[in-house]
């Protein structure tokens, strides 16, 4: 795939804009299927299961499509679990991996029959005291490995709130022994945007060293965080190389321990990021003494990643693809600083031109809001080349939904 042009053609995107308006999120189902197939191919020699980390994008149609591909589901809230069940996932194919939630959510998850991942000693003790060995769980461990493309998306370091420290293994053992809780899996997740396969192999060695503490272990979950290309010249993580190394490591572990374990992964961004486009319109071109701004009909209320994570999204002017290149700063229409791109080289932008943000499938719409009382955009899925509206654009009444007037 060219990193300088979207897989959906400018003609397709333009037609979607004419039909559904802008701003609009668009997801190409074919790209999701391609990414899932890459996972299956890379880990074909492993006893692997893939759980889509649906916090990246939870539209019910995306969940149903993931289910049709054969994926499992990773959820971080009870409502995500309920969405997964509504989308057709079997409870045994759903993993509940919350953080800092009320114990009642764990009780609900148990009643729903899903896999439960516990990342807090207090919760582990409460769950064990209440259910004993009647309901097996997974334990999320913090391997103290720094990884990820940004500190805000690094989750396995010593100062992270996620997971139980590997240095607290004695404490975990005491809880397991005293409550008789059955531990069927151990889990780690070090961060997002990881390109170095060595991070996963280092984490796997940590997991293998701890596996002996859990005699009923059935799987090791390595989380995810697989790197996808954002900037021109970027490359994906070498999944085939990682798959070969992981298969080799598990085969060696089985030979040495006599224990045959599954490996679980939880890809989110890897599956949906490249499928997504945010299509916007240039409202104004504003010249200042320092720069030329392109002000678009969107903002961080629709795509917060550049402001929150300083992330890069490639931008293409599909209305004037052969125009001379000029330098612009692309900003939104929010009454805050909402800069999408500083000093970005684009084909000449004119007021009314359509711009497309690439790699907008993950944490785009999912993190959107009604800040400034602006409306959330529509969502469209392209299935077998045909666009389908899968979420209607907000209307004014949506801003008042749930409010109760007492004055």
The whole-number mean of residue pLDDT values reads 93
Q: What does the radius of gyration come to?
A: 23 Å
Give a short account of the largest sheet: 9 strands, mixed
CATH C-level of the largest domain: Alpha Beta
Task: Count the E strands.
Answer: 18
Unreliable segments of 5+ consecutive residues: 1-5, 147-157
CATH superfamily of the largest domain: Alanine racemase
- Counting structural domains, the number is 2
Q: State which percent range the strand residues make up.
A: 15-25%
How far apart, in Å, are the first and last alpha carbons?
Answer: 57 Å
Task: Describe the structure in your own words.
With 407 residues, the chain is α/β, with parallel strands linked by helices. It has 2 domains: 29-272, Alanine racemase (TIM Barrel), CATH 3.20.20; 273-400, Lyase, Ornithine Decarboxylase, Chain A, domain 1. It has 12 helices and 18 strands. A hairpin with a 7-residue loop joins strand 14 (325-331) and strand 15 (339-347). Mean pLDDT is 93; it is low at 1-5 and 147-157.
Concise description?
The chain has 407 residues and is α/β, with parallel strands linked by helices. It has helices at 10-20, 29-42, 60-69, 78-86, 103-112, 121-131, 169-179, 197-211, 239-257, 269-272, 305-309, 396-400; strands spanning 24-28, 48-53, 72-75, 94-96, 115-118, 137-142, 164-165, 183-187, 219-221, 262-265, 276-287, 292-296, 315-317, 325-331, 339-347, 354-357, 378-383, 386-391.
């Amino acid at each position: 795939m060219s990193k300088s042009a979207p897989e959906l053609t400018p003609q397709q995107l333009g037609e979607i804009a004419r039909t559904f308006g802008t701003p609009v999120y668009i997801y190409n189902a074919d790209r999701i299927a391609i990414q899932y197939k890459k996972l299956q191919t890379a880990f074909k020699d492993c006893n692997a299961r893939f759980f889509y980390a649906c916090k990246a994008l939870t539209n019910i149609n995306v969940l149903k499509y993931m289910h049709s591909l054969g994926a499992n589901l990773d959820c971080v809230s009870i409502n995500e679990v309920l969405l997964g069940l509504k989308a057709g996932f079997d409870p045994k194919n759903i993993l509940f991996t919350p953080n800092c939630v009320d114990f009642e959510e764990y009780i609900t998850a148990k009643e729903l029959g899903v896999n439960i991942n516990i990342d807090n000693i207090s919760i582990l003790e409460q769950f064990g005291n209440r259910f004993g060995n009647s309901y097996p769980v997974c334990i999320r461990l913090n391997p103290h490995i720094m990884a990820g493309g940004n500190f805000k998306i690094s989750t396995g370091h010593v100062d992270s709130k996620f997971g139980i420290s590997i240095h607290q293994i004695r404490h975990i053992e005491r809880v397991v022994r005293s409550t008789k809780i059955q531990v069927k899996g151990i889990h780690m997740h070090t961060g997002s945007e990881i390109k170095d396969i060595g991070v996963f192999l280092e984490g796997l060695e940590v997991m293998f060293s701890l596996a002996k503490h859990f005699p009923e272990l059935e799987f090791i979950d390595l989380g995810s965080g697989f790197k996808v290309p954002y900037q021109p010249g970027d490359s994906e993580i070498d999944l085939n190389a990682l798959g070969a190394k992981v298969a080799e490591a598990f085969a060696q572990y089985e030979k040495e321990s006599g224990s045959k374990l599954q490996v679980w992964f939880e890809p989110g961004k890897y599956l949906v990021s490249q499928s997504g486009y945010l299509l916007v319109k240039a409202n104004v071109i504003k010249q200042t003494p320092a720069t030329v701004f392109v002000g678009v009909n969107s903002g961080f209320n629709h795509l917060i990643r550049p402001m929150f994570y300083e992330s890069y999204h490639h931008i293409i002017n599909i209305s004037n693809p052969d125009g001379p290149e000029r330098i612009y700063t692309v900003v939104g229409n929010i009454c805050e600083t909402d800069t999408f791109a500083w000093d970005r080289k684009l084909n000449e932008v004119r007021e009314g031109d359509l711009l497309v943000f690439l790699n907008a499938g993950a944490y785009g719409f999912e993190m959107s809001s009604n800040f400034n009382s602006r409306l959330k955009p529509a969502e469209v899925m392209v299935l077998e080349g045909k666009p389908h509206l899968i979420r209607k654009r907000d209307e004014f009444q949506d801003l008042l939904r749930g409010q109760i007037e007492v004055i």
